[in-house]
Amino acid sequence: MTPTLVRHHRYADSSAPVDAGTRARDWAEIQERMLAPLYEAVYERLEVGGGTRMLSLGCGSGLALLIAASRGARVTGVDTDRERLALARERLASGQGQDAGPGCADPRARLLDSMPAAVPDGEAPYNLLTAFQPIGCAAGDSEGLAPALASAVPLAVRGATVVLAGWGPPERCATAPVLRVAARLTESARAPRSGSGWRPALRDDLEEVAARAGLKPDGSGRVSCPFGYADVDSAVRGLLSTGLFDTAIRATDRTQVEKEVAEALHPHLRPDGTVWMPNVFRYLVCVS
Fold first, then answer.
1. Among 257, 255, 96, which Cα is nearest to 184's?
2. DSSP symbol at 249
3. Which residues on adjacent β-strands are paired with residue 51?
4. Using an 8 Å Cβ cutoff, are 179 and 243 in contact?
5. Are strands 109-112 and 227-229 parallel, antiparallel or unpaired?
6. Distance from C-alpha of 35 to C-alpha of 194, rounded to nearest angstrom
7. What CA–CA distance (Å, rounded) separates 160 from 106?
8. What phi and psi values does residue 126 have, to the nearest 5 degrees?
9. Distance CA 258, CA 249 (A)
10. What is the mean pLDDT of residues 162-167?
11. What is the model's pLDDT at position 207?
12. pLDDT tens-place string over residues 212-252
C-alpha cells in the first residue's frame, strides 16, 4: 500500500459543527492512510506474519490492524474512541480479518474499547505490541502512553517486541508549520493551557517513553510519510480529524481554525489544486 491523494470531500457547510461520527470518518477516509508507509515498514522489518499475535494501542479505525491481518497476523486493537472503533469493526469485517465479538472461538481480529485484563482463555500471549499514534508534536501527547504500555506488557510473552512511533524532526516534516497554527491561535486567545500546544519533536521523545515504561530499545528507523490531498478542503478536514487542533478550536472557533489552516497550506498547494507535504516519521523497536 502506498500513500495516495485522497478524494475530494464536499460538505454543505464546512463551518458547521462536526459530529463525532463525521470526524471519525474524516480520519478513516482522509487522514489515516497517510501513515500506511509507517505500518508497512515496521511489519516488513519485524517479518509480521502468521506467527504474529499483535496488540495495538490506539488502533483508531483499524488500518494498521487490517494490514497486519492481511499478512496473516492475529490482531487485537484497543481504542477509547468508539466512533473510530466502529469504523474499524466495519473495515475488519469486510477485509482480510474477521471482527470478533464475544463467543467467537478463533478470532482473526478483536476490537476493544479498554485494555483487556488478561489474554482470553485458550489463546497465546501477544508477541508484538504497537503504539502507532505518533507522539512528539504536541506538549503532553505521550503522558498516557507509558501507563498504557505498563498495562499491556503483562499480556505479552517475556521479551515481546514493542513498537513506538513519533514525528520526525520539524525540518523534515512539511506539516510542522501547519500544526503550529494550533499553538498560535491558542496562545493568541490566551486560553487556559491544556498541555496540547504544538512543540517541535525532540530526538529522544520515544526513548524517554520507553524508559518510563521499562522497555529496552532495540533499534529504530525513519519512514517517509507524505501527506497528499486532492484539494485544500480535504486537507483541512483530514488535519482537523487528528485532534491536534481541538485546543485551538475551543480557544477561538472552528471557522477561524479552518481559515488559518487553509492559509498555512498554500505553500504546499500544487498547480493542479492538490496539496502535498513530505514528512518523515520515526519508530522505535523495543524489547519488553
1. 257
2. H
3. none
4. no
5. unpaired
6. 26
7. 22
8. -70, 150
9. 9
10. 97
11. 94
12. 999 999 999 999 999 999 999 999 999 999 999 988 898 89
CA angle 177, 180, 182 (to 5 degrees): 140
Using DSSP, state whether 169 is helix, strand or coil.
coil
Q: Is this structure's pTM higher than 0.90? A: no
- Contact status, residue 223 vs residue 37, Cβ threshold 8 Å: yes
Amino acid identity, position 15: S
SS3 90: helix
Q: Which residues contact 126 (CB under 8 A, 6 or more apart)?
A: 53, 54, 55, 76, 119, 152, 155, 156, 157, 160
Residue owning grid cell 530499545:
217
pLDDT tens for residues 5-62?
A: 544 444 334 444 568 899 999 999 999 999 999 999 999 999 999 999 999 999 999 9
* Pairing relationship of beta strands 227-229 and 275-277 according to DSSP bridges: antiparallel
Q: Which residues contact 219 (CB under 8 A, 6 or more apart)?
A: 284, 285
Please tell me the distance from the alpha carbon of residue 235 to that of residue 6, in angstroms, as a whole number. Answer: 9
Grid cell 486560553 is found at 191
